[in-house]
Amino acid sequence: MSDLPAVQDQPVVDIHAHHLPAALHPPTRVADDPRWPYLVIDDDGRAGRIMRGSEVFRRVKPALWDVPTRLAELDRAGVDVQVISPVPVTLSLWADSGDAADFLRRQNDLLAEAVAVSAGRLRGLGAVPLQDVDAAISELLRSKRELPLDGIEIGTRIGDLELDDPRLRPFFAAAEEAGMPLFVHPTDGPHAVRRAEPTYAFGVGMLTDTALAATALVFGGVLDDFPGLRVALAHGCGAFPWTYPRTAYGDTIVRGGPDPERTARLDRLVGSLWADTLVFDPEHLRLVAERLGAGHLMLGTDHPFLRAPLETALATVSEAAGRNILSGRQIAGVLGLNALRFLGP
């Protein structure tokens, strides 16, 4: 943090981090289905594995499940508040809606417990079974009214439904009315590109997947219909800041020619989106800030995944300041004030 501009009287807030409770287990009735994720911790407690059936899905570090370890890492990096959200593989959109509802309800309870024991250092986003919109709305409202959770993480696609599918509209209406912000995280990277190897899925697929979700929100009428909805997209909004001008041009072709009024409205809708700063290159932040506005950029780390995630993300913001990509006032927003506005009271 020493290379970052001094930020006085405000916390440094990380909007994008993940938590997997050690006590989260698949629903008993269907526990033998190998698609359910669960955590196995090594005997010495120094490492763990996210499992799906007998297969290792991902090797993980103690900060993923242990709150004291997480807080110690935040202290070393200079992060005051972190917003924890589910590991995307736990969203379980493939599952029976009742089983998913039970699993995600339990996970939300455990996330809330982690928040409660953090002495104000952690805030949380829950998850809902969006394969059943009514059940999703019910869990969204419970997360707000009964749990100390500040929003909901959703996937870029809900089963076979894109985010602008009319069947999802009641959920977005409920989130807007409840004032619950949504954090969109890629879930379908391997299917968004023609090559599923990890390098391509991570480097291209996730960004493409997120761009498709952002395009659905902007061009599919979701943000038009729910102007009070606060939606953030992970990883700097994916490839969308780059694809938007071409998509907008294609929109004019489909509609038979330019429409200045529609173009201006689309630009406003894009400017209503929020994004984290996890783009690995400060020059990328220049365009993301141009599209969404610097006031809608928030520090995001993906902690505790990746290698040195806190330090990497903070270095990107620091370099953006050093290259005058973002002003001192804008950096102050990115480091905390913007996230607090996004989360709401």
Largest sheet: 8 strands, parallel
> What is the percentage of strand-forming residues?
15-25%
Count of DSSP strands:
13
What average pLDDT do the residues reach? 94
In which order are the strands of the major sheet placed?
1-5-6-7-10-11-12-13
- Specify the CATH class: Alpha Beta
H and E string: EEEEHEHEHEEEHEHHHEHHHEHEHH
CATH superfamily: Metal-dependent hydrolases
**Span between termini:** 27 Å
Number of domains: 1
- What is the C-alpha radius of gyration, as a whole number of Å? 19 Å
Explain what you see.
The protein is an alpha/beta fold. It has a single domain, classed as Metal-dependent hydrolases (TIM Barrel). The chain is built from 13 helices and 13 strands. It has helices at residues 67-77, 97-116, 133-145, 169-178, 189-192, 198-219, 222-225, 234-237, 240-254, 260-272, 282-292, 309-322, 328-343, and strands at 13-19, 37-41, 48-52, 55-60, 81-86, 122-126, 151-155, 157-158, 161-162, 182-185, 231-233, 274-276, 297-298. It has an eight-stranded parallel beta sheet with strand order 1-5-6-7-10-11-12-13. The protein has a three-stranded antiparallel beta sheet with strand order 2-3-4, with no helix packed on it. Strands 8-9 form a two-stranded antiparallel ribbon. The chain is globular and about 60 Å long. The relative contact order is 0.13. The mean pLDDT is 94.
Topology, element by element:
Blueprint: E1 13-19, E2 37-41, E3 48-52, E4 55-60, H1 67-77, E5 81-86, H2 97-116, E6 122-126, H3 133-145, E7 151-155, E8 157-158, E9 161-162, H4 169-178, E10 182-185, H5 189-192, H6 198-219, H7 222-225, E11 231-233, H8 234-237, H9 240-254, H10 260-272, E12 274-276, H11 282-292, E13 297-298, H12 309-322, H13 328-343
Parallel strand pairs: 1-5, 5-6, 6-7, 7-10, 10-11, 11-12, 12-13
Antiparallel strand pairs: 2-3, 3-4, 8-9
Helix pairs in contact: 2-3, 3-4, 6-9, 11-12
